[in-house]
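Hi everyone, sorry if this is the wrong subforum. Our group has a chain we'd like a structural model of before ordering constructs, and none of us has done structure prediction before. Sequence below.
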Amino acid sequence: MASRGASSAAYDTRMRAGLIGGALSLAVSGAVLLLLALVSSIAIEWLGMALGWWTEPGSAHAARVLETEIGYVDADFRHSIANVAPIELALSAANATYELLVETSGLRALERELVSPEGARETRAAAFATDAYRGARDYLHAAVYVTQLFAVRCTIVLLSLPLFVLVAFCGSTDGLVQRELRKKGGGREYGLVYHKVKSWFRLSLFVPAFVYLASPFAIHPNTVLLPAAIVVGLLSFLVTATFKKYL
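Answer:
Right subforum, don't worry. Here is the predicted structure as tokens:
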């Protein structure tokens, strides 16, 4: 009896450690995903500006994409479980990002200082800094617009999480029913299928999110999020339906 109780306690400890480790791993992976998506989106925007991929001059392409995405939110997303209109949350995220990057960081004050009249510059270093800033100004402005767009898209992803939870719940419920039918009917195990599908689950969440957050083009959220939610529901069904019959 004592050994059985010790084994049960050890199993519970391993389960808790596994859950905590899985949650931490997911949080770290999510943070890395967000950072890579932001850096990638800025790098792609700058590369397009340098190579002439965009038809708009300077930072106008990034500004247009930001305006278009906000228009998508305003036109097609009217309700939220937070009792706040999604467009208000999106605009708040964009404005807060602008305040942080331009006003709080001192970039606006630095810009006013560097674009002062020619006569106000007394040293060669000041003249060099002014010329360097004027050459990089469009790239800095584009980075600000892209970061605002990134904040808007992150807001949309957060507001879409209940959809993914609901779809995963429905898929898991149907899968558990199929598992019970397989268990009662003496059906065969699908261990290989279970482990293969389980390995795809994290990719089904991270890949669409990365594509959506890092894209340099205006994308309607439904174009990415709805197919991703369907895939999550299907994988949830397969994972629970092929889970081993006996623990």
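For your construct planning: The chain has a mean pLDDT of 80. The chain has seven helices and no strands.
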